Give the backbone structure.
Amino acid sequence: MNMIASDFKEQFIAIYKENIHREGADKLLDYLQSKSCDFFTAPASTKFHCSYEGGLCEHSINVYKCLKSYLESDRVKNGFGLEYSDESIAIASLLHDVCKTNTYTVSQRNVKNDKTGQWEKVPYYDYNDTLPYGHGEKSVYIISGFMRLTREEAMAIRWHMGFSGEENVKLIGNALRAYPLALALNIADCEASSFVEERKTK
């Protein structure tokens, strides 16, 4: 793990321990740090946002910061009357993408060096999901193996992709209206991936 990824890991663990105290939370964190889980070294995507080692952890922290900022804004907190505990905010944001653990493998491909004109082998990420359970629902499934989620937390994580998901748009709209934390998490996820994080392509 490189130094930057290590720094994000420390941030993630600090935020997690400060805010999440639910029964089973310690076992989930142990799993995320175990040798059988690559949460802290995995990328967040193959070629778009945070597509590098440690990108998944970095993205999760960015979503946490965006979600807190959104929910604490006067327009949302006072105008809409939405209030969620620090624990719910941390759970929904930090863990929304645990479905991406153990799904990326490093491969090699030939790329021509523009400066030297020589072909060189460079690493890139392949996506190989060995537990094809969906996206948001897979995160809920993994988390629920360690600790209970409230219904709103589960719905927020399940529907965090919003209208970029593949489900029927009416179903997505109904979920986002019924569970405001889901809409807030979707907004935070979009803000983090599209604006906070540099989009990188190879």
Summary: Residues 4 and 54 are 8 Å apart (CA to CA).
